[in-house]
Structure formats: structure tokens, C-alpha cells
Automatic annotation (TrEMBL), chain A:
InterPro entries: SBP (IPR006059). Residues 1-23 form the signal peptide. This is ABC transporter substrate-binding protein. Keywords: Signal. Pfam families: SBP_bac_8.
TrEMBL record, chain B:
This is ABC transporter permease. InterPro entries: MetI-like (IPR000515), MetI-like_sf (IPR035906). Pfam families: BPD_transp_1. It is found in: Cell membrane. The keyword Metal-binding does not apply. The keyword Transcription does not apply. Its main location: membrane.
UniProtKB/TrEMBL annotation, chain C:
GO terms for molecular function: ATP binding. Gene3D superfamilies: 2.40.50.100, P-loop containing nucleotide triphosphate hydrolases. It catalyses: ATP + H2O + polyamine-[polyamine-binding protein]Side 1 = ADP + phosphate + polyamineSide 2 + [polyamine-binding protein]Side 1. Belongs to the ABC transporter superfamily. Spermidine/putrescine importer (TC 3.A.1.11.1) family. This is Spermidine/putrescine import ATP-binding protein PotA. The keyword Cell membrane applies. The lineage of its organism: Bacteria, Pseudomonadati, Pseudomonadota, Betaproteobacteria, Neisseriales. Pfam families: ABC_tran, TOBE_2. Its EC number is 7.6.2.11. Residues 10-241 form the ABC transporter domain. SUPFAM superfamilies: MOP-like (SSF50331), P-loop containing nucleoside triphosphate hydrolases (SSF52540). Part of the ABC transporter complex PotABCD involved in spermidine/putrescine import. Responsible for energy coupling to the transport system. InterPro entries: AAA+_ATPase, ABC_SmlMolc_Importer, ABC_transporter-like_ATP-bd, ABC_transporter-like_CS, Mo/tungstate-bd_C_term_dom, P-loop_NTPase, PotA-like, PotA_ATP-bd. The complex is composed of two ATP-binding proteins (PotA), two transmembrane proteins (PotB and PotC) and a solute-binding protein (PotD).
Length: 345, 421, 369
């Protein structure tokens, strides 16, 4: 065969392949960044090898408005969606997500408690914890109490611009035990207490909104400490930044897979979720980003050293808080409103 | 010529084929009207479909209140006879239990819970818990007792008042909330509690910040526009390209660039420290200073262009004439030149002000929480909490405020003197 | 009339002006402007006339030389302190002020009292017959009315000197002629000194006491209109003002004020020696078309030739006849209708001639015009 004929055949095969793949493309939407890179390595690529279904990875910022618009207008173009727990619960109530058939996914009992929900399956466990730049601080902070100590640790602090996590952190800094945080916060006095505590720190707070901001702020020296998603900090550590995480008082939660109601690719979506829930694939994911696996069977497969940096390591879980999704579903609206009112004064 | 025909009734002019001239003319004009109408029609339709209808339907959402009416039809009927003070009578409880079972089946519980949770925090989980326990089997003698036993909150009139308040298809709830007011338990309009009140401040801040941005823009743009209008063409063209250059970069990129420049380790702070002007970095970003700097930078061309276009039309001989008449050059500028640029200043000011009050990205990225303007909360309710009623109420009020402002302006200055570009 | 007054109001002394440091726009201006006179600076565009006016107004500074006003140098006096009224080409009325406010402007900046201002504005408006339009804005008035307001505004603060920079350029012909007379009469009535810039020679001749003809940054001639027309001192002035037949030749001999010039084809012409060199040098002869006699009228002329009629141009009050004379095909003769021989037709050869007083030997034409 001459070179040009070879080329033509290769092109034709390629085209046919693309055509086939296009018909079966699965659109998976995640939060992007290092998390998406790890998902690509652990899930998207291997899934394509195993099933022949091409995964098109998209990104969003967790705006449910888009999902609602798609479902309402019956023009769903996203097949699998990474969602956080509150959105999962709310979206499930509001009929935005399919109710899952676990026979197509795997054994419910293999999952970490709380990971297998009606409309979603946990992908990983992540944590919001205290992070600091070890190059800039001589003494290491050990708790949220130190976070409030501007005399001992002068400089700005990063906190997420929102009531969630911030109010829990304020109560823990005020001496509330991690297990009692939501009990206190459910009372008006507890809310007042949290805002009073925040008042003390307000002039020193620099607010962040996107998960990528805290490591940037820490690295540039704009803040000396910050609440941060542990995975983002781990990524920055890999890039050579001397950032450290204080697990004490961390808040953990799941990110879950959900299928928007009316997805035209439901079968492939189930296949993908089942694939991503397998322990061997979850192991690969956790080795690429510092989030804990949602499948219990994956835990023993992971390297000890890597495990130490995961939220699910026993020593890291000891003084951590499980984010109470139901609490936030009930009180989120009024607390966020009050937070906005407070923050903008 | 017309000898054989019947005599004409009056002196009517006719065309060659005998049709009266007036009729013919009217017909021809009607054709022309139809033609011009047909030419405008596509644009009119386009505007209607892409602009007026969407805005109208969005604004309607600020008073739309379908959740309770759709999910609890029987409850609403039964609750209308309730006095609203003590607990509602047994039929209300019974109807409510039936409605809830139906809503649970239809998966409309989410919307209902979301709506009622806005009125009383915790309503969502209460509904979920109650719906899971229903239907009672066997049917209890008193639904009232059964429900109160299930959760004592059903014995609190506040939860029933919330349903009663929302038994119509329209509600002032969102609009009142956007003005820091609410309807209290007895159905009267009352001020929101201080720890929930925010939007009046936000509106005031939005207008105040926009006014500051407008004034700074004006102070910086006026001399520059004067320079542009009076330089030789080649130099002014070069300068004009520099003025317009930022237009070709996305707002996001420019805002990001400002963060890099202004942050504590950024170029400006390093320069200031290297020059010994300050010994510690100034806080130039994530506060109002940063927002002002970036907004002025982004909006500057909108001020420069209208002023420039007006100035370009003012002959330099006016100033010479005033000076020749004995006026000091400064006085001549103030009394003769400036009044002629008022139309451009007004147009630029209005343009910048109206653009400013809609600003979102710049304050969101460069400001602290107390530098956020109304648009930030519109986005917050649209994207984060999916409370579109609240989002459209805020947006609608902003739109109304803008229109009022424009009317005041055109009443003061006269719209005819407004020249945009 | 103030022509006789010899008191000098403005004096230009060796004034030069250059914008680029290479070319002089005004070469070496020496000019005395007498008190009360109407002096017109006439010249083609780029001749330096407007620059000279602007230097006097203070909007341009002389590169060298001195300008004196009433005996004092005003080189360092800023324009707003010179107390010189000025009327601009496009009126420059302030569009945001009414007519009355426009007129009050120079009085207000001089700090006059309100009643004084009202009084003066009223008088100024009466002067230009615009009493009824005091409340109008300039945009609501015709060109002629605006022109009058501009005039009134330049005069209302009673300056000793008024400058006008082509003020009638934007008006149509009829209105322009009307305004010329109005300005002239205003000048006569008020006795104010006027320096007027124009490129329209008719305007200059109509209005002025004296006209300074500018060319290439220099004054070619400054004289009363009649002198300028009848006795141009060089070819440029002869050409620029009025119509002119030019004949190129060479000086044969000179005898005091008279001379003999030989044309290219050998004919000899006796002429006034106004601006000539040595015998043998080239000269340009200048004859006004209305000074040429045809047919029998030419019998007593000092210079007689014959010409072939080429064309008749009918202009109502007179007819211009184009002839070929001495090999020159654009030789014009102006014939009053009453004197025109109706038997004359194209192709005819007719005798023509002119008196020696009416042909002037001037410097040669620099380039074929």
C-alpha cells in the first residue's frame, strides 16, 4: 500500500470510530481543577477502555439553576453530575435527579455510611479544614482557636464567603465541641454566638468563593491561614508549596454522582457510576488527589503514607464534624441571608 | 368625453379607469404602509420574543406563588374559614393529610417545602418527615391529634399561618423581602428583623458606589476627552486606540489583571515599597478601593466617548471669542466651553451610572462582602439558592429604580439634549 | 472722514512669524494702522494676512518684532487684556446663550452693573436693528442676523479696535453685499478702527479706506482702493485686483516715466514705466479691459493694434469681447452695451488701442498663469 492510501484508510477508520463514539458519548460534569484531572485518570480514561464509551468531561460551579432549567425544559444534555450533599438532597426532593436503582451500581453495604443516597452515590469524602503556609508561620496553629488569635498569628485569614462551614468554625473556635456544633447552631442563641465570634475576626477576614483561591492566597502571603478544601491543599503541596493542614475541627462531606432527571443516556450513566464506585478505581482516584474513597473496600488498598493525608484516615476523623445536610436544608436560607446581612455591614 | 355617461354626482376626480382618485390614493398609501410594516415586522417580532416576553415573564416570577396553591388545594379551601388565631379546625388537618399524600406521590414536595421553608425555617424537613409517616393506617379519629403527636410543631399556629398566607397565586413576599419587609404573623406589613435586613443598605450602596464611580470617571475622562478632541488627528487617533484598547479584552481578564497588579505582593505595592513611599503593602484589593479602580478603568470609555463626540463638534473659536471679549481663559472655559459639553457629560454620566448599578463580576472578584451590589445578590439567588422569586424581585426593583432615575434625568436635563455618542 | 487723521493706533515693527522654524509665514511686516481707519488685509489663502490679524488679537505670538497698540508694545499682553473686539469667520456666537446674554458677556466679565449692562445691550441691539430678537438663541436665527449679533457683540464694550476675520464668508452674495454696506456705515458712524481680513477683492474695494495686499508673507502694496486699482505697483497686485490683460515683452528703452516695450512678435508698445529693470530685461504689460477702445474709438490712442474677435460674453450691463491680439488669444475688452457695435461678429478683424497712461510696464510674470 502506498503511503497516501494508508493515510486515507486510517482517516476513514478514524472517522468511523469518531462517529460511533459520538453517538455514545457520555457527558460527565464535575467541579473541574485538580479534582477533574484525578477523575480523568481514575475514571474517564479507564472507563472508555473498559466499555468503549467515550466520556466528555465538563465543568460547572455547582449552580443548580442550570440543572433546573434543563430538567424543566426537558433538554437534558448532562448525563452524570458531581453534586455536593445539600444540592443532592434538595434536588432529590425537587425532582431534579433520578432515583437510583442500586442493583445497577453495586452493593450498598460496601459504601461508607451515608454515601449511598436515594438520588446519589458518594464519589469521595472531602474535608474543609484549617490550612496554613508553613513558610510564613513560625509556630504551627493547632485549632480554630488559634485561627482567631490575631496576636499570636498576625495577618489575614481566609474564610469561605457563606454561612456554611463559617458558622461551624466560629462555634468550634468559641469552644463548642465538634459533635455539639449543630445542636448549638439549631438554637437562636447558638446562631447569635457564632456571629458574635465572627465579629471579633471580621476585620482580619479575607473571603474566598472558589476552592482554588485559598491555596493562592496562602502561597502569595495574602493570608496566613485559611479554611480550605483539603484536596486543593494537597495539590498545592505537590506543586512544592509548603502548605499544611490541621485536621482538628475539619468538616467532611461527600461529593456524589447524580443523574439529572430525563437524561437520554441513563444506561451508560449507570455503567459509569458503577465503574467509578469500584474499589480499584477509587484507589487510583485517591492516589491522585487527597480525597478519601467512598467505597470501604478501597481503604486497605491505599498506601499508608497517602492515607495519612486523606480525610478518612482514622486519626484525621477523630475530631472532625460530619456536615449536617438536613440542618443546612432547613436553616440554610435564613442563615445565609443573615450571613449576607452581617457580612455586608 | 363623458357625454354618453350619466352625469357625475359632484365634481369628483377620477383616474383613467374610473376609480375615484381619493380611493385610489388611499389604496396606494395603504400598500405603502403595509410594505413598511412588513419590513419592521421581523425586528418587532424578534424584540418581542427575545426581549419583552422573557423580561416580562421573569418579572412575573417576582410575584408568582404557585407552590402552595398547586400542592395543597384542599387544605387551602378548608383553611379559608379559619380565624388564624387559635389552631385550625379538624377539616383543615384532614385535608392537609390528604394533600400531602398526593404531593408525595407527585414529587412536588420539594417545591412546596422550599417555598414554606422561606416562611418558617425547618418547614422542609417537617414536611418530609410528615409525608413519610402518611397515610395514617388505620385512619385516626382526629387527624389533628395524630399530626400533633407526630410532630408537636403542627400544634403551632405559625406553621398554619404560613400556608394561609400563601393560599393565593400571587404574593408580595419577594418584593417586600427585597425591601427588607415581610408580612408578619397577623398579616400586616412589618420591617424585617435587623439581623435579616440587608437589601435597603445594598440598594443604597449600589447607588452610592455607582455615583462615586461616575464622578471619578467624569473627573478623569473630561480632560482626556478634551485632549482627544483638540490634538492633531494622527496623535488623537493613536490616543483613541489606547482608550478603546481595553474594550478588546474581556472584563474577566481585566479584573484578573487588576488583582495581580493590586494584591499585597503585586506590582503596585512592590513599586511603592521600592520607592520608599510606604513600608508595608497597602490594601488595594478585596476592598472598595479595588472595586473603584477596576470599575473606573472598565467604564472609562463609556464616559470618554460621548463627551469626546460633543467636544469634537465645538469649534475652538468659541474660546477665542470669549477671550477676545475680555474673559480670562479659565472663565471662558467654564462659562462658554463647559456648558456646551453638558449634553455629553449628561449622556456619559447616565451611561456609566446605569452600567455601574448592574455591575457584578468586578465587585464580586475585587471587593469584600460589604462592597457587593444588588447584582451580586441577584446572581446569588439565581445560581446558589435557586430562589428565582427573590432574584427577579431584586432585579425588577433595580430596573424600576433605573427607569425612575432616567425619567428624573430627562425631566431635569431634557431628553432632547441627551446625545449618546 | 478719518482718513486724514495721521495718528497711528497700531504699529507692526519688523514682525516675523514662523510655525516650523524653516518657513516664514510673515516675512517682515511693517505696518501702521491709523486711528479710525478701515484697513483691509487682502490676499490669497496662505499669504499671511490672517496670521497677522491673529498676532494683533493675541492668539499668535510674533517670532520676532514688536506690535504696538497706542504706542505700547503688546507682545506680552494676553489676548483678554488687549481690549480688542473681534468678529470671527463663523460668528462664534455662544450657542447656549441668548442674543442678550451673548451681548452681555463682554460686559459681565468687565464687572459692569446690571443696569449698565442692560442699557448697553439694548443700545447695541438697536444699532443692528435686532431689538426684538434679544431672547432668541443663535440657532434660531438666520445667518445675516447672527452676523449682526456678532458685530454688535464685538462693539458693545466699545473697544478702540475691532478685528474682523472674513466675517461675511458664509453668507450668500446678496446678503454679503448688503452687510458690506451695513458694516461700512457702522464704521463711519462709530469712528472705530477696523482691521478687516478677506480674500475677496470686491469686498476690500467696497469697504476700506486702505487695502494692504498680502502675498507670500509680505505686503505687496498698501493704498486706497482707487489707487490700488488704477496704479498697481506690481504684476501680482494688478492681477489680484480686478481684471487685467497681460502682455509679455522686453524693455527696449526708458525715458523717465515712460518706456518702450517690444512684444514677443515684434510689436512695440509705449507704456508707463512702473516697475522695470534695465533695457533688455523682461517686462509684463498690464492693461485693464475697460481701458481698451475698439474700432473708431481707438483712433486717438497711443498704441494701436488689430485683433480678431473670438467670442462674445453677454453680461447684461456690458459685453466682454474675447479677441486674439498680438498672438495672445485671451485678450478681453469690456464694452458697455451702449458702445457695442452690433455688426461685429466672430471672426472679424477690428482695430483697437489704448492710451499710454493705461498700460503699465511691470515686473515680468514669474510663471505662465
Amino acid at each position: 500500500m502506498s503511503k497516501s492510501v494508508k493515510l486515507a484508510v486510517a482517516a476513514a477508520v478514524g472517522l468511523a470510530f469518531v462517529g460511533q463514539a459520538m453517538a455514545k458519548d457520555l457527558t460527565v460534569i464535575s467541579f473541574g481543577g485538580a479534582n477533574k484531572d484525578a477523575q480523568t485518570k481514575a475514571f474517564y480514561g479507564p472507563f472508555k477502555k473498559a466499555s468503549g464509551i467515550n466520556v466528555v468531561g465538563g465543568e460547572y460551579n455547582g449552580e443548580m439553576a442550570k440543572v433546573k432549567a434543563m430538567v424543566d425544559t426537558k433538554s437534558v444534555s448532562w448525563d452524570v453530575l458531581e453534586v455536593e450533599s445539600p444540592e443532592l438532597a434538595r434536588g432529590c426532593d425537587e425532582g431534579l435527579f433520578e432515583k437510583l436503582d442500586y442493583t445497577k451500581i453495586g452493593n450498598k453495604a460496601d459504601f461508607v455510611p451515608g454515601a449511598a443516597q436515594q438520588c446519589g452515590v458518594g464519589i469521595f469524602v472531602w474535608s474543609t479544614a484549617l490550612a496554613y503556609n508553613a513558610d510564613k508561620l513560625k509556630t504551627a496553629p493547632t485549632s480554630w482557636k488559634d485561627f482567631w488569635d490575631v496576636k499570636k498569628f498576625p495577618g489575614k485569614r481566609g474564610l469561605r464567603k457563606g454561612a456554611k462551614y463559617t458558622l461551624e468554625i466560629a462555634l468550634m473556635a468559641d469552644g463548642v465541641a465538634p459533635k455539639d456544633v449543630y445542636k448549638v447552631l439549631a438554637t437562636p442563641a447558638g446562631v447569635d454566638r457564632a456571629f458574635k465570634k465572627l465579629d471579633q475576626l471580621k476585620p482580619n477576614i479575607q473571603w474566598w468563593e472558589a476552592g482554588a483561591q485559598p491555596p493562592q492566597y496562602l502561597a502569595s502571603g495574602d493570608v496566613v491561614m485559611s479554611s480550605a478544601y483539603n484536596g486543593r491543599i494537597a495539590t498545592a503541596q505537590k506543586d512544592g508549596k509548603n502548605l499544611k493542614v490541621v485536621w482538628n475541627g475539619g468538616m467532611y462531606d461527600f461529593d456524589s454522582w447524580a443523574i439529572p432527571k430525563g437524561s437520554p443516556n441513563k444506561d451508560a450513566a449507570y455503567k459509569f457510576i458503577a465503574f467509578a464506585s469500584k474499589p480499584e478505581n477509587q484507589k487510583v482516584y485517591s492516589q491522585n488527589i487527597a480525597y478519601g474513597p467512598s467505597n470501604k473496600l478501597a481503604v486497605p488498598m491505599i498506601d499508608k503514607k497517602v492515607m495519612a493525608e486523606l480525610p478518612t484516615a482514622p486519626q484525621n476523623m477523630k475530631d472532625a464534624v460530619k456536615v449536617d445536610v438536613n440542618f443546612w436544608a432547613d436553616y440554610g436560607e435564613s442563615l445565609e441571608q443573615r450571613f449576607n446581612a452581617w457580612a455586608s455591614k | 368625453m363623458m357625454a354618453s355617461s350619466a352625469p357625475m354626482p359632484d365634481h369628483q376626480l377620477t383616474t383613467q379607469d374610473g376609480v375615484p382618485l381619493k380611493t385610489k390614493l388611499a389604496r396606494a398609501e395603504r400598500m405603502n404602509k403595509m410594505k413598511s410594516l412588513a419590513l419592521v415586522l421581523p425586528l418587532a417580532l424578534f424584540l418581542l420574543l427575545t426581549f419583552i416576553v422573557p423580561i416580562g415573564s421573569l418579572l412575573f416570577r417576582s410575584v408568582d406563588n404557585p407552590e402552595v396553591v398547586a400542592s395543597l388545594p384542599h387544605t387551602i379551601k378548608a383553611i379559608s374559614s379559619w380565624d388564624g388565631k387559635s389552631l385550625p379546625p379538624e377539616p383543615v388537618y384532614r385535608a392537609f393529610a390528604a394533600d400531602l399524600v398526593k404531593a408525595h406521590e407527585d414529587q412536588t414536595l420539594g417545591d412546596l417545602g422550599k417555598r414554606l421553608n422561606m416562611e418558617v425555617a425547618g418547614y422542609r424537613s417537617l414536611l418530609g418527615k410528615t409525608a413519610r409517616a402518611l397515610p395514617f393506617d388505620p385512619a385516626p379519629a382526629s387527624y389533628k391529634d395524630a399530626l400533633v403527636k407526630l410532630d408537636e410543631r403542627w400544634g403551632d399556629p405559625a406553621y398554619w399561618q404560613a400556608i394561609r398566607r400563601n393560599s393565593t397565586n400571587h404574593t408580595p413576599f419577594y418584593l417586600l423581602a427585597a425591601l427588607d419587609h415581610r408580612i408578619d404573623e397577623v398579616g400586616e406589613v412589618a420591617k424585617a428583623t435587623p439581623d435579616q435586613a440587608i437589601y435597603l443598605d445594598v440598594f443604597a450602596r449600589t447607588f452610592w458606589m455607582s455615583a462615586i464611580v461616575t464622578v471619578i470617571c467624569l473627573l478623569l475622562a473630561y480632560p482626556l476627552a478634551y485632549l482627544l478632541a483638540n490634538l492633531p488627528t494622527r496623535k488623537s487617533n493613536l490616543l483613541m486606540i489606547m482608550v478603546l484598547l481595553p474594550f478588546w479584552t474581556s472584563v474577566l481578564v481585566r479584573v484578573a489583571a487588576w488583582i495581580v497588579l493590586l494584591q499585597s505582593g503585586g506590582l503596585i505595592n512592590s513599586a511603592l515599597m521600592a520607592l520608599g513611599i510606604t513600608d508595608h503593602p497597602l490594601q488595594l484589593v478585596f476592598n472598595r478601593t479595588g472595586v473603584y479602580i477596576a470599575m473606573v478603568h472598565i467604564l472609562m470609555p463609556f464616559m470618554i466617548l460621548p463627551i469626546y463626540s460633543v467636544m469634537k463638534g465645538i469649534s475652538p473659536t468659541y474660546l477665542r471669542a470669549a477671550v477676545s471679549l475680555g474673559s480670562h481663559p479659565f472663565g471662558a472655559f467654564w462659562k462658554v466651553y463647559f456648558p456646551q459639553t453638558v449634553a455629553g457629560v449628561g449622556a456619559g454620566g447616565l451611561l456609566v451610572f446605569i452600567l455601574s448599578i448592574g455591575y457584578y463580576i468586578t465587585p464580586a472578584l475585587l471587593g469584600s462582602p460589604n462592597d457587593q451590589m444588588v447584582s451580586y445578590f441577584v446572581a446569588f439567588y439565581t445560581n446558589t439558592t435557586i430562589n428565582w422569586g427573590m432574584a427577579t424581585a431584586l432585579g425588577g426593583l433595580l430596573l424600576a429604580a433605573t427607569l425612575v432615575l432616567y425619567m428624573v434625568y430627562s425631566w431635569l436635563v431634557g431628553a432632547s439634549r441627551l446625545r449618546l455618542g | 472722514m478719518s482718513e486724514s487723521s495721521s495718528e497711528v493706533l497700531v504699529r507692526f515693527r519688523n514682525v516675523q512669524k514662523s510655525y516650523d522654524g524653516e518657513n516664514l509665514i510673515v516675512k517682515d511686516l511693517n505696518l501702521d494702522i491709523r486711528k479710525g481707519e478701515f484697513l483691509t488685509l487682502l490676499g490669497p489663502s496662505g499669504s499671511g494676512k490672517t496670521t497677522s490679524l491673529m498676532m494683533l488679537a493675541g492668539f499668535e505670538t510674533p517670532t520676532s518684532g514688536v506690535i504696538e497698540l497706542a504706542g505700547r508694545s503688546i507682545n506680552n499682553v494676553p489676548p483678554h487684556k488687549r481690549n480688542i473686539g473681534m468678529v470671527f469667520q463663523n460668528y462664534a456666537l455662544f450657542p447656549h446663550m441668548t442674543v442678550a446674554e451673548n451681548l452681555a458677556f463682554p460686559l459681565t466679565v468687565r464687572g459692569m452693573t446690571k443696569t449698565d449692562i442692560q442699557d448697553r445691550v439694548k443700545r447695541a441691539l438697536a444699532m443692528v436693528q435686532l431689538d426684538k430678537l434679544a431672547g432668541r438663541y443663535p440657532g434660531q436665527m438666520s445667518g445675516g442676523q447672527q452676523q449682526r449679533v456678532a458685530l454688535a457683540r464685538a462693539l458693545v464694550f466699545e473697544p478702540q479696535l475691532v478685528l474682523m476675520d472674513e466675517p461675511l464668508g458664509a453668507l450668500d452674495k446678496q446678503l454679503r453685499e448688503h452687510m458690506q454696506m451695513e458694516i461700512k456705515h457702522l464704521h463711519q458712524r462709530l469712528g472705530v478702527t477696523v482691521v478687516y481680513v478677506t480674500h475677496d477683492q470686491g469686498e476690500a474695494l467696497t469697504m476700506s479706506n486702505r487695502v494692504a495686499v498680502f502675498h507670500q508673507g509680505e505686503i505687496q502694496q498698501i493704498d486706497a482702493p482707487a489707487t490700488l486699482y488704477e496704479h498697481p505697483r506690481n504684476t501680482f497686485v494688478a492681477n489680484f485686483i480686478g481684471e487685467n490683460n497681460r502682455l509679455a515683452g522686453r524693455l527696449v528703452s526708458r525715458d523717465g516715466e515712460r518706456c518702450v516695450v517690444q512684444l514677443e512678435r515684434g510689436e512695440q508698445v509705449r507704456a508707463l514705466a512702473v516697475n522695470v529693470g534695465e533695457p533688455g530685461s523682461p517686462v509684463s504689460l498690464s492693461v485693464r479691459p475697460e481701458r481698451i477702445s475698439l474700432n473708431g474709438y481707438s483712433e486717438h490712442c497711443d498704441n494701436r493694434f488689430s485683433g480678431r474677435v473670438q467670442e462674445f460674453i453677454y453680461l447684461g450691463d456690458h459685453v466682454r469681447v474675447r479677441l486674439e491680439v498680438c498672438g495672445k488669444s485671451d485678450f478681453y475688452v469690456k464694452q458697455p452695451i451702449a458702445e457695442l457695435d452690433h455688426k461685429l461678429s466672430v471672426g472679424d478683424v477690428v482695430p483697437l488701442g489704448w492710451q499710454v497712461e493705461h498700460v503699465r510696464a511691470l515686473d515680468p510674470i514669474e510663471q505662465a498663469a
